[in-house]
Design brief:
This protein is an alpha/beta fold. It has 5 helices and 8 strands. Strand 2 and strand 3 form a beta hairpin. Helix 2 packs across helix 3. The radius of gyration is 24 Å and the shape is globular.
Amino acid sequence: MLGSLRSCRGQFTRGDSCCMSFLTYTLAYFQLILGLTVLRQGQDNSTDTNYQAARIAILVLRSTADSARLARDFSLFPSRVPQSAEELARELASRQKPVRCRSRKEGNTITIGCRVLTDSQSLAWLDRASSENLRSWGSRIKNRCQKSLGDAKLLIRWEQDTLMVPFRAFAAWLRDYDMNSVIGTSARGKPPVGVCAVVTVGGSARIQIKPTPPSPSRT
């Protein structure tokens, strides 16, 4: 194509009108490629955010089902096939949202059950709860960090397990998952370099930021 452009450039100086059509076609071609690249990047970012939100959900669900620090397998009900946290996160990320999830320990496996929320009352409750948390937590992040809110790094911690995620993934978790949880700021000094805030899961949480009042049909 570059050779054709050089040839056309020479013809175009002689007034060959066909070269104008060729240049127009070439410009449209590169615009199409650029557009597809941007679209693919947007899809990748969305997939990555959904995956990270699912990892947060799994960490929270593990904290409510298991007080031990030992590594455990997971299964997604009704399946009994053991999965790693990464495998389960990929499966959860691909599923329809929002969902209500619960967990329980069965031997060395954490069994997680999720169902899609469809009734208007439950959807309204989750929307209201997540919006309140996003306003509260978002205001705190803006006051603490210089980066844009979506890119601010959070360190999510339960016992010895940690996740580093951008705020947008934390927001997606608040929006897409309804689950019992105690999530709050860490009482351990300043965050590590590059981290806007440390968020703890479970009993060590100092300030609860995801309230769990009884929502419709939470069983």
